[in-house]
């Protein structure tokens, strides 16, 4: 995907959000004793945002920048988002668990390491995760009295 | 001189304050030294921890991290030629060159000494000008605060991204995010979509950690995950001789004062301060052709300016409640967590807190010097950790930190979503610092505007009939004009360069 195309797509979604917010803000009630109600500022800002998106789209169209937009290791990033999503779902459903957190961190360390042998990756990810959880327990639960 | 004669120094000499200064300094040095992270991320990650601290300890911790992070950035700038923080970019030009000439310790010595001098001068000026400034600011009312907020947004949107349109859009996104929650004047729910969790507004800690730490993890994953920033670390003695110091003493002084003055302007931050100082040092040097070739003044200028700008940024933060930089915007978050509103009244309501912050920051600057001398070679060794370990740890600590701030799993979703969106926007050259500043300034601007219009019965004359408002409006127009002319000048230079190349 080119930088220009990605910019157009992002500006489209931002402008769409601006239009939606403008409409939603129009439904806020306006008390008569205030000259400026709760919808005033959101509507001004969202309208400006739509205008700026149009201006930005025009300047992007006129620009000669045709470079492609690359996201290296996109699979790793998507995997991270999926793992993190699952981790948060488990956390939200069952509460915080050191075992689940340990597995989460160890899994991340394991998949991110692409060059060591399987055995070394396992050892590093488990050892690092153990050390981190000891530190988290000491710093957050014992020192700062955070209840997870 | 209330900060000397009317301050209870026993508040400062406690174990808690001692520990936060030491921890804040070491943590700031470490995070600052890692390329791509910087003071903003360092402070954002630590913000949840400040809930359980006293207000004084919390603010001193974050301010110390800010100060130490600015020096920490120069460690990787000099040792590996990659800026550890955006404000250490100018240091690469001469610092990395001097290191390659076999003098990394000398380069780091110039940097650390500059950080000490800049930080100290900055804090002294902070002590001297904050109180008089707050005496002027006490006359400020809603119109002035609204206009100051707008001035801050104009500064940051003009300076923070290479695409001005996207900078402005980033500001507008930040303003919209600030409107989520209950409208304080009417109790109307705005943009909460029925979620109870959003009644208090977008959670600041989750948003900041998502935008900076989580997004940065995705950026780091885009590199070769087994890359280590440094593979070979020799013993580095951070030191300059008295003669070397004398050679750059005027540069240190001038750049420190410049750093404070630029740091005071809302939205500018230490990056702009370090570049201004570098270009000024080169312009006034007897040997400008030596810059970029390991010139000591090329290290002394940006490093003293960026540390001085830390104190400069705290001037409007504490006296007006207007953040002087993105990092200062997060420090305002710490004030809010403890139910304290920075602004002109803080000198009357919480004088001990304010003077305690000043003195704590001064001691933090001294701690940065001595701990920096002892630990620079160790910090350089930390750069041997592979990126895959750093990125996993940062993501994990970010999530734990977000949860620890309010023990609400909803905030984890906000942090993840903010991280994904911020990563994409950053790739497309939108400006995250603009967004953060607008998020913090949004409520100030909206409340100021609405109260002003309520006072004047809907008439905008209130903004042009008050003397301080008129001065601020003039400053806004001056800033817009300066930025427009700079953009036109750089466009013309680009066109001329193209024409010359074609000929």
Write the layout of secondary structure elements.
The complex is a heterodimer of chains A (148) and B (503).
Chain A: H1 3-25, H2 40-62, H3 74-94, H4 98-112, H5 118-143
Helix pairs in contact in A: 1-2, 3-4, 4-5
Chain B: H1 2-5, H2 15-33, H3 38-46, H4 55-79, H5 89-100, H6 104-137, H7 142-159, H8 164-178, E1 181-182, E2 189-190, H9 204-221, H10 242-247, H11 249-264, H12 269-284, H13 297-320, H14 326-337, H15 346-349, H16 351-382, H17 387-406, H18 409-427, H19 432-455, H20 467-502
Antiparallel strand pairs in B: 1-2
What does this structure look like?
The complex is a heterodimer of chains A (148) and B (503). Chain A is mainly alpha-helical and 148 residues long. Helices cover 73% and strands 0% of the residues of chain A. The longest helix of chain A has 26 residues. Chain B has 20 helices and two strands. Chain B has a two-stranded antiparallel ribbon. The radius of gyration of chain B is 22 Å and the shape is globular. At the A-B interface, helix 1, helix 2, helix 3, helix 4 and helix 5 of A face helix 8, helix 9, helix 17, helix 18 and helix 19 of B.
- Helix count of chain A equals 5
Let me know the number of strands of chain A. Answer: 0
Percent range for helical residues of chain A? over 70%
Main β-sheet description of chain A: none
Query: How many helical elements of chain B?
Result: 20
The secondary structure category of chain B is mainly alpha
Radius of gyration of chain A: 24 Å
Low-confidence stretches of chain B: none
Q: Helix and strand string of chain B, N-terminal first?
A: HHHHHHHHEEHHHHHHHHHHHH
**End-to-end distance of chain A, in Å?**
42 Å
- The radius of gyration of chain B is 22 Å
């Amino acid at each position: 995907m080119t930088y220009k195309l990605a910019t157009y797509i992002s500006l489209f979604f931002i402008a769409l959000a601006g239009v939606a917010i403008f409409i939603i803000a129009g439904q806020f009630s306006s008390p008569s004793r205030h000259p400026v109600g709760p919808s005033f500022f959101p509507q001004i800002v969202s309208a400006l945002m739509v205008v700026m998106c149009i201006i930005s789209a025009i300047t992007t169209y006129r620009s000669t920048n045709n470079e492609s937009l690359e996201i290296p290791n996109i699979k790793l990033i998507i995997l991270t988002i999926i793992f993190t999503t699952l981790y948060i779902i488990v956390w939200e459903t069952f509460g915080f668990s050191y075992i689940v957190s340990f597995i989460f961190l160890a899994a991340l360390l394991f998949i991110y390491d692409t060059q060591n042998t399987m055995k070394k990756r396992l050892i590093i990810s488990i050892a690092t995760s153990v050390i981190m959880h000891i530190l988290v327990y000491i710093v957050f639960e014992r020192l700062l009295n955070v209840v997870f | 001189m209330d900060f000397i004669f009317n301050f209870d120094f026993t508040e400062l000499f406690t174990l808690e304050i001692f520990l936060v200064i030491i921890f804040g300094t070491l943590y700031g040095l470490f995070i600052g030294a890692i390329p791509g992270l910087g003071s903003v991320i360092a402070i954002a990650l630590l913000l949840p921890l400040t809930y359980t601290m006293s207000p004084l300890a919390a603010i001193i911790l974050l301010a110390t991290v800010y100060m130490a992070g600015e020096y920490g950035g120069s460690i990787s700038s000099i040792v590996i030629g990659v800026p550890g923080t955006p404000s250490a970019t100018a240091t690469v030009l001469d610092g990395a060159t001097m290191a390659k000439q076999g003098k990394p310790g000398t380069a780091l010595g110039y940097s650390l000494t500059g950080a000490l001098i800049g930080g100290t001068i900055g804090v002294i000026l902070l002590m001297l000008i904050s109180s008089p400034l707050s005496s002027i600011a006490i006359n400020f009312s809603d119109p002035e605060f609204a206009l100051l907020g707008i001035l801050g947004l104009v500064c940051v949107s003009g300076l923070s991204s290479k695409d001005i349109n996207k900078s402005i859009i980033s500001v507008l996104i930040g303003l919209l995010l600030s409107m989520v929650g209950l409208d304080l004047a009417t109790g109307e729910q705005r943009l909460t979509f029925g979620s109870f969790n959003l009644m208090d507004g977008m959670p600041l800690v989750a948003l900041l950690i998502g935008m900076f730490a989580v997004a940065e993890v995705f950026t780091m994953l885009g590199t070769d995950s087994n890359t280590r920033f440094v593979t070979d670390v020799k013993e580095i003695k951070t030191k300059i001789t008295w003669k070397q110091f004398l050679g750059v003493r005027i540069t240190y002084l001038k750049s420190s004062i410049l750093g404070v003055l630029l740091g005071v302007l809302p939205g500018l931050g230490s990056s702009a301060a370090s570049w201004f100082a570098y270009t000024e040092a080169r312009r006034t040097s007897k040997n400008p052709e030596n810059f970029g070739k390991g010139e000591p003044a090329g290290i002394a200028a940006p490093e003293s300016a960026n540390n001085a700008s830390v104190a400069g940024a705290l001037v409007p933060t504490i006296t007006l409640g207007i953040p002087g930089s993105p990092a200062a915007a997060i420090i305002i978050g710490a004030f809010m967590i403890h139910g304290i509103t920075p602004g002109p009244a803080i000198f009357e309501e919480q004088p001990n807190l304010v003077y305690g912050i000043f003195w704590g920051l001064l001691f933090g600057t001294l701690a940065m010097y001595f701990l920096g001398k002892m630990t620079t070679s160790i910090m350089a060794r930390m750069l041997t950790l592979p990126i895959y370990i750093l990125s996993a740890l940062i993501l994990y600590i970010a999530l734990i930190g977000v949860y620890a701030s309010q023990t609400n799993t909803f905030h984890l979703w906000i942090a993840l979503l903010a991280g994904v969106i911020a990563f994409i926007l950053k790739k497309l050259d939108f400006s995250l610092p603009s967004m953060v500043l607008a998020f913090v300034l949004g409520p100030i601007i909206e409340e100021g505007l609405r109260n002003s219009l309520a006072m004047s019965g809907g008439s905008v004359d209130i903004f042009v009939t008050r003397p301080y408002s008129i001065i601020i409006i003039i400053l806004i127009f001056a800033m817009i004009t300066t930025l427009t002319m700079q953009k036109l000048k750089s466009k013309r230079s680009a066109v001329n360069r193209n024409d010359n190349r074609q000929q």
